[in-house]
Automatic annotation (TrEMBL):
Entry keyword set: Disulfide bond, Membrane, Transmembrane, Transmembrane helix
Disulfide bond keyword on record: yes
Record has Transmembrane as a keyword: yes
Protein name per the record: C-type lectin domain family 5 member A-like
GO biological process: regulation of natural killer cell mediated cytotoxicity
Transmembrane segments: 62-83
One Pfam family, short name: Lectin_C
InterPro entries per the UniProt record, alphabetical: C-type_lectin-like, C-type_lectin-like/link_sf, CTDL_fold, KLR_subfamily_B
Length: 237
């Protein structure tokens, strides 16, 4: 029996054929959707940032303020640690562990306790600022009385002369202040004020009284500084 073979050409519709997606197809479908999604997120983020603009700015300002405060704190710490006041404190701390006989003063200076005093023999017309400048050239300053014991000593050596002190009157604040910026303690001693326009002070003849800041023929200069280790003991150490 003869066999018949039937050939058929199937013309399938375009939509039923499987096909590999091309690059343009991918870009037009998924990638386009992804781009739209990202833009949507950015838009939302921008909108959120705009809506909370004050909050964003306040955070930036707060961060800047914190940095400035930290810098100021560091600056103050460095000044306190390495400034001149710190140097004198460290010097006093070091000297406290040294024997009394190892400490001394330069020639023409008098030693009392842990301080050296210079009593100028000159009675020249010299104002308060010039007198302080003279002390500065000798690496010292005008005297600051910080104890009753020191007060007693200075009264004993100034029985017949007046010596300037590092104490002045400030008219605006109506107060007496030392050159170390400390206020005068009236319980330690009273200030005899013979003339209202005398804003400087001098010690002598058993009292502390006012003196003209412009200088006087009867006022002498007096300086003080910390004692130092004598050279012979420096070599031994």
């Amino acid at each position: 029996m003869a066999e018949y073979v039937l050939y058929a050409d199937l013309n399938l519709p375009q939509s039923t054929r499987p096909r590999i997606p091309t690059v343009p197809d991918v870009q037009d479908s998924d990638c386009t959707y992804a781009e739209v999604k990202v833009k949507s997120q950015d838009t939302n983020a921008a909108a959120d940032c705009k809506s909370s603009g004050k909050s964003c700015c306040s955070r930036k300002h707060a961060a800047i303020l914190v940095v400035i405060i930290l810098i100021l704190v560091l600056a103050v710490y460095l000044i306190i640690t390495y400034g001149p006041t710190a140097g004198s404190q460290n010097s006093s701390t070091t000297l406290s562990h040294i024997r009394e006989e190892e400490l001394g003063c330069p020639p023409l200076w008098r030693k009392h306790g842990r301080k050296c005093y210079f009593f100028s023999p000159e009675k020249k017309m010299k104002d308060w600022e010039a007198s302080r400048g003279e002390c500065t050239t000798m690496e010292s300053d005008l005297v600051v009385i910080d104890s009753r014991e020191e007060m007693s000593y200075l009264l004993s050596v100034s029985k017949y002369d007046y010596y300037l002190l590092g104490l002045k009157y400030f008219e605006k604040k109506k107060e007496w202040k030392w050159i170390n910026n400390m206020k005068h303690d009236p319980t330690m001693f009273n200030i005899t004020r013979a003339y209202s326009d005398y804003d400087c002070t001098a010690i002598g003849f058993g009292e502390v009284g006012t003196a003209p800041c412009g200088g006087s023929q009867t006022t002498q200069n007096m300086c003080e500084k910390d004692v130092t280790i004598l050279k012979r003991y420096q070599k031994e150490s």
